[in-house]
Design the sequence.
């Protein structure tokens, strides 16, 4: 699930978990709503849907299988069984298809145009859209989605068309590229890529950045209210175990994301392989989370940016960008220093990034390229970060500068993402479908009290 997924001012009530029943053996189980089901279940976010589709759905023979889970119309495109799964040690250079070519160089921006952008809710500063429209004398129309299942359904239904798809995570790219939903990029329109951190100019998930440019970066850690929880995860032997405190019953929450949730169980248990295929480790993580549910009457939601400031949650597994922006949701007069964010000081923790793309069939492909380039400019990126809290991997944007500009509170500098994190951090990548089903089944046992 994307860090913005499910976050709205009027978010639906969080699920509260009490007394989960003992876990059953993971391997070999079948369940009509379990990993063999095509129906999206609770917590089956964009990562879950795409991982399942890239394995079970795509291997079954085509895009129709991929989209069956969301009830979308299909494009009738057959997909191969052996779609690669990029990893840092196994990079992938995606092909440029004869039937899906980049636009020509030297074209002028479309005139009297409306650039149509499709993005996660709350994932772009409206000021950036307005500034781009003024610069290129165009209108900018933003449409938002709350899950990638919803986005895929709309993109393939023929009921809507967009120029730009924002916020695509690396593990989603294989499906989108092989289904030819993305347009290859013409680099001549994207000179601001020179401002990006060097690894993002040749990323493992899209060598030679043929379909993507980098967008936001973030870590996953633990947020807490320092004035309400006197313990400090930085002083703990294992900071990942910080939520396992029964005395804060009713005030503990974790993210509504099956990969992030099970990963927390793994980390609390001492395992740092967040792409494990070992059923025993997955079961151990499941049982750890079930124990957490019994101890704390656990909530599962993605609302840390509002719940930590309001005191609805005192301890919350969280994405760094949400906590960086949480200060603006504090009650009047309460200092930002009451909010804490723990991420391992050595950088060995979950780290991830989003990408921006141009959609195949874009009506305004030149403007779409220019918009991607616009967001790679340091000044525009700073405008964006000021509103949404999520950093962008540009060389001129450093933690100290963000503090100096008043964009990031000094007390929350731990939410900043450093380049070194992508060298030694823990990246969640696509995993084989059989293992992914075990992860999803374990998450169901936690999130549905099974």
Sequence:
């Amino acid at each position: 699930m994307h860090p913005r997924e499910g976050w709205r001012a009027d978010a639906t009530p969080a699920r509260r978990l009490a007394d989960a029943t003992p876990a059953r053996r993971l391997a070999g189980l079948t369940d009509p709503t379990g990993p063999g089901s095509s129906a999206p279940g609770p917590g089956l976010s964009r990562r879950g849907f795409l991982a399942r589709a890239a394995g079970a759905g795509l291997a079954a023979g085509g895009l129709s299988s991929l989209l069956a889970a969301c009830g979308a119309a299909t494009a009738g495109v057959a997909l191969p069984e052996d779609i690669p799964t990029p990893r840092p040690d196994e990079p992938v250079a995606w092909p440029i298809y004869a039937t899906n070519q980049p636009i020509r160089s030297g074209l002028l921006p479309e005139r009297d145009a409306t650039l149509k952008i499709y993005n996660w809710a709350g994932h772009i500063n409206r000021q950036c859209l307005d500034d781009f429209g003024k610069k290129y004398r165009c209108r900018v129309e933003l449409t938002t989605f709350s899950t990638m299942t919803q986005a895929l359904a709309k993109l393939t239904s023929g009921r809507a068309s967009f120029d730009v798809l924002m916020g695509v995570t690396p593990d989603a790219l294989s499906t989108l590229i092989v289904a030819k939903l993305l347009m290859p990029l013409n680099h001549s329109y994207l000179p601001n890529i020179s401002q990006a951190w060097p690894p993002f100019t040749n990323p493992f998930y899209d060598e030679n950045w043929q379909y993507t440019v980098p967008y936001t970066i973030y870590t996953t850690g633990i947020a807490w209210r320092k004035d309400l929880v006197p313990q400090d995860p930085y002083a703990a032997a294992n900071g990942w175990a910080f939520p396992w405190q029964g005395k804060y019953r009713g005030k503990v929450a974790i993210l509504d994301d099956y990969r992030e949730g099970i990963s927390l169980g793994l980390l609390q248990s001492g395992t740092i392989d967040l792409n494990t295929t070992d059923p025993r480790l997955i079961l151990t993580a499941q049982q750890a989370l079930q124990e957490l549910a019994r101890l704390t009457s656990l909530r599962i939601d993605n609302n840390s940016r509002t719940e930590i400031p309001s005191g609805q949650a005192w301890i919350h597994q969280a994405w760094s960008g949400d906590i960086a922006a949480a200060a603006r949701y504090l009650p009047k007069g309460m200092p930002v220093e009451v909010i804490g964010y723990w991420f391992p000081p050595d950088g060995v923790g979950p780290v991830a990034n989003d990408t921006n793309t141009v959609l195949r069939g874009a009506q305004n492909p030149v403007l779409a390229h220019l918009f991607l380039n616009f967001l790679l400019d340091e000044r525009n990126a700073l405008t964006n970060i000021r509103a949404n809290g999520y950093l962008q991997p540009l060389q001129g944007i450093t933690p100290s500068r963000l503090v100096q500009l008043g964009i990031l509170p000094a007390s929350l500098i731990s939410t900043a993402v450093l380049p070194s994190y992508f060298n030694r951090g823990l990246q969640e990548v696509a995993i084989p479908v059989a293992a992914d089903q075990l992860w999803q089944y374990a998450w169901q046992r936690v999130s549905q009290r099974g």
